Amino acid sequence: MRKGLIFMGCIVFYSCFKEPKKAHDSNSLQNNQGIDKISESTRLDNQIEKNQIESKYSYIKTLEGKYLADENLFETGILKIQLLKLLGEENYNLFIQNMEVQVPIEIIDDEYAFVSGGAPHNFGSEEACVEIDFVNDVISVGILSEDKGILYFTEKENKNVTKGKLKEWLKEVNDKSTTD
């Protein structure tokens, strides 16, 4: 009986010291959960901010060296929607026709993508190109057509967003048309 009382006394004595520690651990756990919630909230805010900054076209960066037509980017998705909105249906169809034969997607300085192409058996008089600016989140399009001449479209009113490759293309087709 005496051994039982000593045993019970030890348990009570031990629990008195253990209980405050549990309370402390519980507070610590609650504090850590609060910190975790704040950290998670900060991570989510940073992710939202990053997503807001990231271009809607940035997925194209992973396609360097591939052909836009092979990836069906002109037939589906945000690029098609934006091209239709920018060009209108008639010019969009002309653009697609003039991009039937393409060079692979080129990514320049991780800032923009450039793709040019031409109509089969009619390169030089039926051409097109698209520039996808990841920094400004803008697409710009150049179309050369025997019927319509040189057409230029950009999503921004400020045409200064056009990068080097599209400017070079526009200059080349303009030089060709003035020498012909």
Q: How many domains, as an integer? A: 2
Largest beta-sheet details: 6 strands, antiparallel
Task: Kindly state the number of beta strands.
Answer: 6
Which of globular, elongated, flat, extended, rod-shaped describes the shape? globular
In whole angstroms, the N-to-C terminal distance is 116 Å
- Strand residues, percent: 15-25%
Runs in which pLDDT lies below 50 for 5 or more consecutive residues are: 18-29, 44-52
Q: Supply Rg.
A: 31 Å
Could you tell me the mean pLDDT? 76
H and E string: HHEEEEEEH
Return the structural class: alpha+beta
The number of helical elements comes to 3
Helix content: 40-55%
Plain-language structure description:
It is a single chain. By secondary structure, the protein is an alpha+beta fold. It folds into two domains: 1-53; 58-179. Helix content is 50%, strand content 18%. It contains three helices and six strands. It has helices at 2-53, 77-98, 164-179, and strands at residues 101-102, 106-108, 112-118, 127-133, 138-145, 149-154. A hairpin with a 3-residue loop joins β2 and β3. The protein is globular and about 40 Å long.
